[in-house]
Give the backbone structure.
Amino acid sequence: MRCIPSALIIAIIVDASVIAQPAAAQTTDRIFVSVDGVYQAGTKDFNDGASFPLYAETATFTTGYHVKPGPAFNIAGSGRVMRQLAVGIAVSRFSRETPIAVSASLPHPFFFNRARSLSADVTGMYREERAVHVQLRVLLPSQSPHFQAAVFGGPSFYTVTQDVLNQVGYTEAYPYDSVTATNGQSSNVSTSKVGFNAGADIAYFFTRQVGVGGTAQYAGTTIELDSAGGDKVDAKVGGFQVGGGLRLRF
Amino acid sequence: MKRSIVLLVATAAVVLSLDRGVAQQAPAVLIKATTAAELRTWDGYVTARERSGELQVTRSDRDPSLPSRIVERLQQFHEGVPVWGAQVVRDTTNGVPESMFGDVSPSLSISTTPALSSDEALRVFGAGAVSVLRRPELTVLRLASGEARLAYTSVARTDAGIFRIFIDANTGAELLRYSAIETQSAVGTGRGLLGDQKKLSVTQQAGAYFADDQLRPPDLTTYDMRANFSRFLNLLDGFVPLVPSDVAADDDNTWTDVSAVDGHAHVGWTYDYYFKRHARRGLDNRDRRIVSFINAVTQQAALSQPPDVIGAFVVNAFWCDDCGPGNIGVMYFGNGVPPNVFNVFTGQTVAQLAGSLDVVAHELTHGVTSSSSNLIYMNESGALNEAFSDMMGTSVEFFFQTPGTGRGQADYLIGEDSFRALRPGSVNGIRSMDNPAMFGDPDHYSQRFTGTDDNGGVHINSGIANHAFYLAIEGGTNRTSGLSVVGVGPANREQIEKVFYRAFVFLLPANATFSTARAATIQAARDLYPTNAAVANAVTQAWTAVGVN
């Protein structure tokens, strides 16, 4: 939340610099729409873990969630409310598989300090990030009616659905010197959190109303997920996105 | 009109019964709420009683399969006394009930002041039990007749089993009992003779823990005679059956009895050794039941026992193939003597024999022998029988302990962790495999005992085969013959262990001689290691060095 005012300040500063360029051409369109395919860069890996008593010692397991970069979908619309200022809303969706690397240390039932180790990769776990971005857009003046650029920023309202591993499944049999991983228990947790977005957009219009454009933005936040150990674990959401797509203005 | 009479009679019954702490109560309220309408009704009912303190949350769990759900267990109390079995289970999401199930008693009017004190109740429970496993707790018991009684409840172990028992808190009369045996494996801990902490595979039943291993394949149980020597003799003789109350027990699973800790753990380890090293499943390779006895005579009581009892049941451990109910075959580990008492002949004191891993493995190996080659326990075959137990006992030590000369370390002494030198000049242990003469035993066939004592020298002449086993592993020179042996080396001890195991378990006849043992072990070496002549050579040289051809 603390980042939101910063984004607004950036926007306002940019806006002030734009106003200081009176010679530039001004658009008269009032509605702007963009439909983008973007690539969300960077990994958002996070770790979870738990410990519990087992055979008179403490068992531990850690889970490493690998949230890979990947494509996302972004639709934005805004309406001009002042000469170079527009307000709008964008929605985005990012969905990726988040494979989990599990490692565990499980005490031996007969002997102290002879823990059995277990490691496994769990697939088929997914994350979905859905966000609504409220954006204040500053339309930058352009010498050409074909070009249009804007910077924007504002709060982002994230809803994240994440598959999490609650329990590591394993089997053991006499003489208990090793353990074999089996299906664990997972659940699908959903949580919401407010973050921020800030970025820039540039478009080239072939016609008066239709064009193509590119965008680069950062949008994200940090959510708290229920830890398998009963606490909360932080997980980053969103990230730097770059992409492009259709531009419309009316 | 009829209803009024009934109510009047019922009220009178309640009033009359109040002084006795007995009341005919209204029927139990059964709660089964899953629909929105039912939940609205019962949520109000439960919440009102929660606010009054009649229902109290005693447990709250999150269901792993439904993380958003919290399941609360509410216990009914009557004037601060729990009502036995009266609970409501409430499943909620963010505090909103999803379902509710319960069984509570409305409008209890029973007095909660007992005539019996807790100590008096304990005596009542103890009168009919071997031991009382829990302090008596006051409760309101709802009988099948609908009556509610103020009662004490406890768990007691009797000759017939372990039971949850309720007695009237005013009269002491028994109201209800049911079996409290709910078997569940557990792992306990305890410190053995050497102060080392061990894990114990035990069984949890009715809140107590019993030395009954549920994790290993066979039924592996340690029975605590609790100094009841006459009962122990009756059990050995098979005159009386083993009962659950004979099993060594502990209330908190932190075991403090040295013989129970070491005996139970070491028997398990020996089973593990046979399984891992030789792929053998226990005594008969079919996971035959393994029964151990401890504490027939305490250390203090040992001093007042006649010499034959001391020799057999105090400073001794044994395997008895035909002992026990149904001749199941049992092991026994004596407790030794107080630490400041020593044998004037050996200068040794004797601690709990179960504390020596090699002693435990030695006795269990007698069971293996009796189930396999069944070497006749006299003369040379008897000496081979004893020797094989020493070989496997030592092998188990090296399997689990680090080599060394200290207590709790693997070496070629037998029983050194229990038989300790107290007088200057005396030594630890009862036999030596690397130097049998240290205890007056022969290390060469030419010096074998030929008398009739000791079943024809079964413990004495075992030194000859023991020394051959030692030389085949470690190499060295026999002190009598002066012949040297190139052993396979400590890193390859597994080879010699497997060779002697194969020979003594599978190849030897019951009346084998030393010479037969030589031939069988050489054959076993060739069988197991046909491309590694060093093993057969080591075995051959070892037997030759000890004078067995």
Notes: Residues 503 and 523 of chain B are 8 Å apart (CA to CA). Chain B has a mean pLDDT of 89. The interface with chain A takes residues 64-67, 187-189, 197-199, 201, 215-217, 265, 268-269, 272, 275-276 of chain B (CB under 8 Å).
